[in-house]
Amino acid sequence: MKLALDKKTLRLPLLLAVAALAVGVSGCSVEHRTTETGVSQIELSAGGEPYFNVGPVTYQIQVSRQINPFDPVDVQYFAGVKNAQDLPGTQFWYGVFLWAKNQSGTDQTTADTFKLEDSYGDIYTPTVLNPSINPYAWTAETLDPDAVQPAAGTTASNGSTGGGLILFKLNETVYSNRPLTLEIFAPGSTKPSRVSLDL
Prior knowledge:
The chain is mainly beta. It is built from two helices and 13 strands.
C-alpha cells in the first residue's frame, strides 16, 4: 500500500533539518590560544586555516604547497627567478602564500623575514623575489589601519591563492622530517611566531 504524502507533511521535517543545520553552523567558534613564543594566536576551530598575530598584524596562510616551474599554471610564480627549472632531483620548490591585515589603530609594517624549519632542525630561507618583476612576491609593506596585503585588485589578491608568495627551495629530505614550521618575524623582532605547515 502506497502512502500519499502531501506538501504539508514534508514541510515540517524539512524545516527541522534546516534549523539543525543553522545551529551546527552557528556552533563554529573562534578559539584564542597562545603559541610557544607567547604570541597570541586565533584559530578557526571549524577547520579553517589559522589566523595568527605577528606583532600587531594578523596573518593567514592562504595556501602552502609544492609548485612546479614546468606547470603552465605555476610558471607565473617564477617570474624573475633564474634557472627555476634547473633544480637537481633532490630539491623542489615550495610556496607559502600569505595574507595580512592591520587590525591595530595605527600604521604597521608587515613581516619581511621568514624561515622554514623541518623536524630535523634544517633551516631554509626564502628565494629573493623582485616585486617589480614578480607580481606575486611578498614584500614588507606599511599598512594603514584595517588595510590588507595583498591589496584588493592586485594580481596576488585576484589570483587563485589570494596571497603574496614566499618561495623556498627545499631538499626532498623534508618529507622524512615533517612537519615543516614557518617562522615569521615582525620588523625589529628576534622572536618569531611559528606556524606548522602541511607538506
